[in-house]
Amino acid sequence: QVELVESGGGLVQAGGSLRLSCAASGNILNIYLMGWYRQAPGKRRELVAAISGGGLTNYPDSVKGRFTISRDNAKNTVTLQMNSLKPEDTGVYYCNAEIMSSISIGTKRREYWGQGTQVTVSS
Known about the structure:
Strand content: over 45%
Shape: elongated
Structural class: mainly beta
Low-confidence stretches: none
Order of helices and strands: EEEEEEEEEEE
Number of helices: 0
Helix content: under 10%
């Protein structure tokens, strides 16, 4: 059983910073792409940052230069440092990872989601 658990959300004023963390646990053999998504009320879930197993990163223009994603492969964690936050960054942030795990009949590779953590940026 693989699980992603996020932490670090909260309320911050515009211009402030927050750091989100996500830890993967379970019978993990390998973690491929990891990322953070967010969903604002009434909007679709969107990617805010992604990082490959080798450390290549990808950001949409809306957060580029303000958000930084990093990962610790030894600890199976991914972190999102968010600076210069804006009210439009408000939403529920979800950790996402593509993971190969060990199961009773062999291995399984699939995408997993965390439970989400609320980020609210006040103006």
